[in-house]
Design goal:
The complex is a heterodimer. By secondary structure, chain A is of the alpha+beta class. Chain A has helices at residues 4-7, 17-31, 33-44, 49-73, 140-161, 183-192, 196-200, 203-209, 214-220, 225-229, 233-263, 303-308, 337-347, 363-387, 397-413, 451-456, 477-492, and strands spanning 75-78, 82-87, 93-98, 102-109, 118-125, 133-139, 176-181, 266-270, 274-279, 284-290, 296-301, 311-316, 329-335, 359-360, 415-419, 422-427, 432-438, 444-449, 458-464, 469-476. In chain A, helix 2 (17-31) crosses helix 4 and helix 14 runs antiparallel to helix 15. The two termini of chain A are 32 Å apart. The model of chain A is unreliable at 1-5, 161-171, 201-215 and 321-327 (pLDDT under 50).
Chain lengths: 504, 169
């Protein structure tokens, strides 16, 4: 067991962390896929298999060498008020991660460390997005000790600063099981939410890039494209339809796989003031989130979810625009509305958002959008008609009609409601999204009017919290002012304890 | 502090519609207009020089010049109007920023949510004795709003006001 005295010294990671470094190097390579395409192409053009082999060997050797050197130069230390990390092979740098800014401490059990029973701790800070720190390949009890240390000191600092009513030890307990997800749920989740990107990544784009190679490929199959395309239209349609069905099946299959990879063995536990989530097939994630850190609760019901009567519930934290990290959110996949309401109630007492009375956007909002877009379509149609052939002017028509219908549906969905201390926004097109925010967590509000809107007594209201914002276009000006002033009162007036309530 | 739950009188509600509005310094509008004008004069001069060197034919050249002049007048006019439309309001618990010529926007930043404040001075602003105040709150990573064209003393007062609130909470 590691005591706090030794944690304050500079610590090295175990040699197994080399595996983590290799994995993160590979992840970087995959993320920079497009930048590497010319390189990969260059390698295949090298004369002789021996040289290609040597170059590939050199690349692998370089990655391994980097991983080993990174491990050799990496050291961390837990000080009184921050985690210090020293790293860098050529340019040494020291990272100072203040406890007060630490947002999450996440446990990951990647498949390559699981045989040894080792854990990787990921420490996220509330500062800039690139500031997360990985302490890789720790023994389980060592990892637990570090997490305890961080959370306790953090809570201690918080008590010194602003009276933090949450006892820190609560975060360490797993809590009661709130919900778990079985394989059938995950399959449903994969079908209703396109998670294929998890697996596809850049691959789809690669197919797009190699598009001009396809005719060559077809020729090599012994099919002459010209003869092929002169076949009867019926045959073509049949081929097209089967290709469509096939591609839908492939995407759906990949999506289900992606969903299972991410959410396998999903368990959500809750204590009085924190959640912890366990999920993942190859890499097990263990995420802890303080309930007080939840900025918005999102009820997301896509059109297919509506058919099946399911929805996704997302607890969202402070977000940085660039980092679309899943770890900053807790997503509970594909649950019933009843379950969603019960889980949301764990954080804030809200009624079922469906039952609320929403203030709607004025029809002039749709009219405005329709006029602007129709003008654009007319210009494009005129361009086609005059520039090429007059018949082509009808080409944008189906697109225009679809666009208008979708805009109309979007307008229909827009709504905002206030209930207790909660502000609820409604949106979506065919599906419905509800965004629930606590008014006292607002970061800022804005109120916008054009002269036309002023004459009609309408305004656009924007309410912003740290995770996202609600924009409500063209609502009645008195309603807009009421909601705005209510929000400001909630933020600015002291709470029930006589002090300002922290948004964190 | 003892627990209280007094009724809030309507007069004490933070009525955002009645925030006293102060316009930014009039020199801000002058600077914006002059900078915009200078830019378009330079464009016009460059165009004329090119026109004579490359000898652009008769109907195209005057049309081009006329288009640049019209664009310059519109953009400069907008720059002036936008500068005049900017204003701010200071209350005990929040700062308000007014902007926009056509879409008039009122943006309110509660001081309890201010993360940090920047006072910036560009070279031209510095000469005119002006400064900009940038207010940051959590979340987006960018500033909530920037109030330009404030006399330096006012900018510093605004910063002090915002930061004093943070300490007081």
């Amino acid at each position: 067991m590691t005591s706090s005295a030794t944690l304050a010294d500079w610590q090295r990671l175990s040699a197994w962390s080399v595996l983590h470094n290799i994995a993160s190097a590979l992840r970087h390579l995959v993320n920079n896929f497009f930048a590497l395409i010319p390189l990969a192409y260059g390698i295949t053009r090298l004369p002789g298999e021996l040289i290609i082999g040597l170059v590939l060997f050199a690349i692998v050797a370089a990655i391994v060498l980097w991983a080993v050197l990174h491990y050799r130069t990496f050291a961390y230390s837990l000080r009184d008020d921050s985690v210090l990390v020293r790293q860098g092979i050529v340019f040494k740098k020291q990272l100072d991660l203040a406890f007060v800014r630490i947002q999450n401490v996440t446990f990951e059990y990647p498949f390559y460390l699981r045989p040894m029973g080792l854990v990787t701790i990921k420490i996220d800070s509330a500062g800039s997005s690139g500031d997360e720190v990985y302490l890789a390949a720790l023994e389980a009890d060592e990892a637990e000790a570090i997490r305890k240390e961080i959370l306790e000191r953090k809570a201690h600092l918080a008590r010194d600063d602003v009276a933090d009513d949450a006892p820190s030890s609560d975060l360490l307990e797993a809590g009661d099981l709130l919900i778990d997800r079985q394989l059938p749920d995950l399959i449903l989740h994969g079908l209703t939410n396109n998670r294929a990107w998890i697996i596809l990544g850049g691959v789809g784009a690669v197919i797009g890039q190699g598009g001009d190679q396809i005719p060559v490929f077809v020729m090599s199959l012994g099919i002459d494209p010209e003869e092929f395309f002169s076949q009867s239209v019926g045959m073509m349609l049949l081929l097209f339809a089967s290709a469509l069905v096939l591609s839908v099946l492939i995407v759906a299959g990949l999506s289900v796989l992606g969903s299972i990879f991410s959410y396998y063995n999903f368990h959500l536990y809750g204590t009085n003031d924190a959640f912890s989530v366990h999920r993942g097939l190859l890499t097990k994630h263990e995420i802890h989130m303080r309930k007080s850190r939840v900025q918005t609760i999102l009820f997301r019901e896509d059109w297919l979810d509506r058919v099946l009567g399911r929805l996704n519930l997302v607890f969202e934290q402070l977000s940085h625009k660039q980092a679309g990290m899943m770890d900053e959110k807790v997503l509970v996949p594909t649950i019933t509305r009843q379950q969603a309401n019960e889980l949301a109630w764990e954080v804030v007492p809200i009624p079922n958002p469906v039952d609320l009375d929403f203030a709607c956007s004025h029809i002039r909002y749709f009219a405005k959008l329709a006029i602007v877009w129709t003008t654009l379509y007319v210009v494009v149609a005129a361009g086609f008609g005059l520039g090429l052939e007059w018949k082509l002017a009808a080409l944008p028509l189906p697109l225009w009609a679809t666009h208008m219908v979708l805009m109309y549906l979007t307008w229909l969905r827009k709504g905002i409601a206030v209930d207790g201390e909660m502000i609820i926004g409604r949106g979506g097109i065919i599906g419905i999204d509800y965004v629930v925010m606590q008014a006292y967590k607002l970061q800022g509000v804005s109120f916008t009017q054009s002269p036309f809107m002023r004459r009609r007594g309408l305004a656009t209201l924007k309410l912003r919290v740290a995770s996202r914002s609600i924009r409500m276009p063209f609502i009645d000006v008195t309603v807009a002012r009421q909601i705005m002033d209510f929000g400001l009162l909630e933020v600015e007036a002291p709470g029930s304890h006589g002090d300002h309530r922290s948004w964190m | 502090m003892a627990f209280t739950n007094l009724n809030v009188s309507l007069a004490d509600m933070p009525e955002s519609a009645t925030v006293a509005r102060h316009g930014v310094d009039s020199r801000h509008a002058i600077i914006n207009t002059v900078v915009s004008l200078l830019f378009w004069v330079v464009v016009l001069v460059v165009l004329t020089v090119i026109g004579f060197v490359k000898s652009i034919p008769y109907p195209q050249f005057p049309i081009l010049v006329a288009a640049v002049i019209v664009a310059g007048i519109v953009v400069t006019g907008h720059a002036y109007a936008a500068a005049r439309a900017r204003g701010y309001g200071v209350r005990e618990h929040d700062l308000t920023y007014y902007s926009g010529v056509f879409w008039r926007q009122q943006s309110v930043q509660p001081l309890a949510r201010v993360q940090h404040v920047e006072v910036n001075r560009g070279p031209i602003e510095k000469r005119a004795g002006l400064a900009s105040v940038k207010m940051f709150s959590a979340g987006s990573g960018s500033a909530t709003f920037t109030i330009p064209g404030l006399p330096l003393a006012v900018a510093e007062d605004l910063r002090e006001h915002a930061l004093a609130h943070k300490v007081g909470m």
